[in-house]
């Protein structure tokens, strides 16, 4: 047994906010205080956390860390690897990279910040094997993938069928099968219908613009896929990258999407990129207040923020039309990959600069979404790594949230016109440690339906991060004194001291309906060959009741 003593515990899922209390760990799980005196005898290992904060391990809800597009990003940015190199140690492998680190480096860096779980947010079913193999090489993290379905040929074909009941049954069968075949954890939709429209040389689809050649609309794709996710009893709601990412005025699309799906569970990702108003001159301005107001009226919705980090980034997304536009706009190098009949992917390296007005506005919008939001269980911290910046910037973002003076000092360094288009200068709120624990672990774990993660109650997985309390919150969260994974110390003073593979997190979709025979003929053998002979360590995840966000 291991006992962590004297630490200030932040476990918001169990209502614990800074109380000094002991945490008992046995066989990889948090357990209650042993009742037998002998259980507290000499065989109890003690970890003294005096002067420290104890939190559950961090849970990364949206990141791009494995699969072909991530690999393409590595190939496209050799400079990212020359400058960032970490030698091997007796316990760990060597690694390279900053915006797109190598697999080993990714695991050590996340663990070095106190994170023990991470999800790769966009994987086409056909590429799932590659993603899983990289994740198996990403140490110290439990991982999972979200399987892309919003522009998938089979799904669009079914959505175009006239009989509502047949459509519903077939959709359920195909989505369940696709998720199981790809060993996915959640259903991801990126720019519903928009990628397929682009492949047919059509402009950006509006919510009710039919997508060729199927004639279905983005609105129909969203409603029917969100409902099917619920019918399949998946632990995480549909994970949505809305239409019109990055466009001035796209707040209208985002709000329309939320109104369309009101009353249904939904996770909206990298909201910062979807919270843009428009000025009379067509320039981006912050629409964070409208987004937050709508979110707070709808506790069934959650989102992550996609906070901009100044410096180099590598944008990569299944939203290939958006990446094409970004390439045209910036002239930066660009890669596009068509995943035939499924989706696409685009990659554009980018640098966000504080003296560039649009980047400064984007930076403010992300922070506004977090700081204006009244319910921290609804808006989570991400950088959509490496799209808005690398995840290693989390400690700095935490300081920006917790320290208004520091934030103000940063605001003064931005493009001088930024205050005309944003609201951040008027916000004085400072996050508490409890709120940081919600937006980095407890909240993501809850919306992901991970009942054993994101908290330190009885039966929780003993993933624990211990940070020395400091006034400088960036320094504090940059280098945890200890990180434990399943009760084992994996990090000391911010450095990984172990290297082992974590679990693969799987959903358990209802598979009661067989795959329709006409589709089996066309596709099952194709996918089966791509995905066969690949075993992962499974973890059963039960479908949780919908927990109201309080
Ligand atoms: Zn993303």
Bound molecule kinds, no repeats: zinc ion
Adjacency order of strands in the biggest sheet: 8-11-12-13-14-15-18-22
Estimate the helix proportion, in percent.
25-40%
The helix-and-strand class reads alpha/beta
Summed up, the helix count is 18
The number of E-state strands comes to 26
What's the average pLDDT?
A: 91
Query: Quick one: biggest sheet?
Result: 8 strands, parallel
What general outline do the C-alpha atoms trace?
A: globular
Question: What gyration radius follows from the Cα positions, in whole Å?
Answer: 23 Å
Span of the ends, CA to CA? 34 Å
Q: List the uncertain runs.
A: 540-550
| Proportion of beta-strand residues | 15-25%
Plain-language structure description:
The protein is α/β, with parallel strands linked by helices and 550 residues long. It is 33% helix and 21% strand. Strands 8-11-12-13-14-15-18-22 form an 8-stranded parallel β-sheet. Strands 3-2-7-23-24-25-26 form a 7-stranded mixed β-sheet. It has a 4-stranded mixed β-sheet with strand order 5-4-1-6, with no helix packed on it. It is globular and about 65 Å long. The two termini are 34 Å apart. The site of zinc ion has 9 residues, from strand 11.
Q: Which SSEs are present, and which pair or pack?
A:
Elements: E1 2-5, E2 8-11, E3 16-20, E4 23-26, E5 29-31, E6 45-48, E7 52-56, E8 58-63, H1 68-76, H2 79-82, E9 85-86, E10 95-96, H3 103-112, E11 115-123, H4 128-136, E12 142-148, H5 153-159, H6 164-181, E13 186-190, H7 194-199, H8 218-231, E14 239-241, H9 251-260, E15 266-268, E16 276-278, E17 284-286, H10 288-297, E18 301-304, E19 311-317, H11 320-330, E20 335-339, E21 343-352, H12 357-372, E22 379-380, H13 394-402, H14 404-413, H15 418-421, H16 433-447, E23 464-468, H17 473-478, E24 482-485, E25 488-492, E26 495-496, H18 517-531
Parallel strand pairs: 1-6, 2-7, 8-11, 11-12, 12-13, 13-14, 14-15, 15-18, 18-22
Antiparallel strand pairs: 1-4, 2-3, 4-5, 7-23, 9-10, 16-17, 19-21, 20-21, 23-24, 24-25, 25-26
Helix pairs in contact: 5-6, 6-8, 9-10, 10-12
Bound molecules: zinc ion.
């Amino acid at each position: 047994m291991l006992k962590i003593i004297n630490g200030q515990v932040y476990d918001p899922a169990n209502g614990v906010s800074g109380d000094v209390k002991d945490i008992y760990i046995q066989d990889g799980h948090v357990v209650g205080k042993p009742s037998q005196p002998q259980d507290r005898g000499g065989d109890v290992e003690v970890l003294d956390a005096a002067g420290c904060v104890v939190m559950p391990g961090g849970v990364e809800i949206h990141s791009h860390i494995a699969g072909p597009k991530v690999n393409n990003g590595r190939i496209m940015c050799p400079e990212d690897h020359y400058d960032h190199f970490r030698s091997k140690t007796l316990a760990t492998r060597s690694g390279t990279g900053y915006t797109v680190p190598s697999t080993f480096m990714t695991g050590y860096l996340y663990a070095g910040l106190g994170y023990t779980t991470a999800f790769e947010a966009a994987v086409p079913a056909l590429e799932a094997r590659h993603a899983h193999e990289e994740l198996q090489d990403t140490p110290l993290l439990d991982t999972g993938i979200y399987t892309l379905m919003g522009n998938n040929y089979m799904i669009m074909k079914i959505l175009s069928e006239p009989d509502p009941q047949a459509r519903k049954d077939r959709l359920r069968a195909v989505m369940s099968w696709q998720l199981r075949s790809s060993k996915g954890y959640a259903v991801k939709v990126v720019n519903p219908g928009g990628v397929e429209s682009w492949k047919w040389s059509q402009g950006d689809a509006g919510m009710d613009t039919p997508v060729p050649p199927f004639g279905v609309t983005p609105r129909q794709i969203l409603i029917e896929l969100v409902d099917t996710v619920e019918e399949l009893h998946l632990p995480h709601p549909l994970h949505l990258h809305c239409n019109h990412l990055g466009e001035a005025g796209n707040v209208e699309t985002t709000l329309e999407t939320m109104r369309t799906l009101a009353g249904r569970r939904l996770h909206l990702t990298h909201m910062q990129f979807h919270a843009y108003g428009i000025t009379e001159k067509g320039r981006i301005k912050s629409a964070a207040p409208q987004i937050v107001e709508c979110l707070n009226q709808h506790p069934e919705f959650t989102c992550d923020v996609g906070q901009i980090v100044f410096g180099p980034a590598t944008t990569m997304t299944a939203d290939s039309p958006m990446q094409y536009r970004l390439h045209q706009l910036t002239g930066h190098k660009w890669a596009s990959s068509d995943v035939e009949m499924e989706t696409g992917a685009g990659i554009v390296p980018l640098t966000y600069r504080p003296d560039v007005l649009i980047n400064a506005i984007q930076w403010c919008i992300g922070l506004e979404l977090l700081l204006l939001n009244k319910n921290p269980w609804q808006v989570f911290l991400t950088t959509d790594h490496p799209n808005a910046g690398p995840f290693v910037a989390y400690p700095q973002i935490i300081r920006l949230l917790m320290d208004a003076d520091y934030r103000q000092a940063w605001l003064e360094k931005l493009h001088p016109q930024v205050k005309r288009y944003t609201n951040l200068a008027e916000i004085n709120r400072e996050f508490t440690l409890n709120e940081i624990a919600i937006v980095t672990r407890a909240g993501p774990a809850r919306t992901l339906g991970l009942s054993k993660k994101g908290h330190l109650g009885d039966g929780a997985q003993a993933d624990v991060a211990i940070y020395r309390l400091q006034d400088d919150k960036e320094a504090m969260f940059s280098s945890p004194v200890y990180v434990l994974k399943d009760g084992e110390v994996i990090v000391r003073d911010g450095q990984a001291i172990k290297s082992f593979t974590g679990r693969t997190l799987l959903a358990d979709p209802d598979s009661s309906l067989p795959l329709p025979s006409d589709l089996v003929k066309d596709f099952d053998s194709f996918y089966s060959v791509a995905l066969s002979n690949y075993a992962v360590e499974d973890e059963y995840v039960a479908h949780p009741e919908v927990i109201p966000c309080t």
